[in-house]
Amino acid sequence: MTEGAVRLTRLDPTGPDRDALVDFLSSEEFPFHVRRRIGRADAVAAVDAGAYRDDEHDTFWLDHDEHGRVGIVRLEDLEDPVPLFDLRIAGAHRGRGLGTPALRAVTDHVFRTMPEVTRFEGQTREDNTAMRRVFVRAGWVKEAHYREGWPVEGGTAVASVGYGVLRRDWESGETTPVPWDDDVR
Ligand SMILES: CC(C)(COP(=O)(O)OP(=O)(O)OC[C@H]1O[C@@H](n2cnc3c(N)ncnc32)[C@H](O)[C@@H]1OP(=O)(O)O)[C@@H](O)C(=O)NCCC(=O)NCCS
């Protein structure tokens, strides 16, 4: 298990960081994403089209004290009051306990630099156990379990699990539970 701080370094996807970002996206495998592998041409097209930095998106390297550059995070839906994220740690650095400090650093970044954001959301496949543990350990709360909500190419759909964190919980260190009792009578 590795502990240690993870820092966010804003990357310039169409400037100096373009090649390294394309290399990262097209050389890694992402078994729990809708697209497991991204071809180089597709990665170039997406990066050049602004998918990693435009009005709705911004992207950061995840830099670790000891291990150096361990992955990326892309913030999404930045024009909405509730942003989302996509976290991708490089294969060589997975399973070492970096996910939780990475998500904490991402959460801190969003609440510190975006004063209008009062909640932050993320989703993952139900079988992405590592990511689900990371959400819980970073203090996020499960808010939804969309049964068969995640289509799988050539297979049976799995559930999509939604988590969220409130600014006021982030500030206070408390956890506001979801009122699951459907007490509407
Ligand atoms: C998901 C991800 C961020 C998790 O970060 P990580 O640093 O690899 O995870 P950790 O090492 O902190 O592991 C978290 C827990 O999951 C467990 N775990 C790790 N990999 C696992 C796997 N493949 N299957 C089941 N459990 C796993 C770990 O054992 C750990 O639990 P434990 O501490 O009780 O033993 C990282 O693996 C990743 O980037 N994967 C590819 C992209 C992805 O799926 N991103 C999520 C998109 S929302």
- Which fold name corresponds to the CATH topology? Aminopeptidase
The oligomerization state is: single chain
Shape: globular
Portion in beta strands? 25-35%
| Low-confidence region ranges | none
Which architecture per CATH?
3-Layer(aba) Sandwich
> Separation of termini?
48 Å
- Overall pLDDT: 96
- What is the share of helical residues? 25-40%
What compounds sit in this structure? Answer: coenzyme A
Radius of gyration: 17 Å
CATH homologous superfamily placement:
Gcn5-related N-acetyltransferase (GNAT)
- The tally of helices reads 5
Q: What brief labels describe this structure?
A:
single chain, 185 residues, Aminopeptidase, 4-stranded antiparallel beta sheet, 26% helix, globular, binds coenzyme A
Fold and architecture overview:
The structure is a single chain. This protein has a four-stranded antiparallel sheet, covered by helices on one side. The N and C termini lie far apart (48 Å). It has five helices and seven strands. The model has no long low-confidence stretch (mean pLDDT 96). The longest helix has 15 residues, at 99-113. It is of the alpha+beta class. The chain is globular, with a radius of gyration of 17 Å. Coenzyme A (COA) binds next to strand 4, helix 3, strand 5 and helix 4.
How would you briefly describe this protein structure?
The chain has 185 residues and is of the alpha+beta class. The chain has helices spanning 18-27, 40-48, 99-113, 129-137, 167-172; strands spanning 6-10, 58-64, 68-76, 84-89, 119-125, 141-150, 158-166.
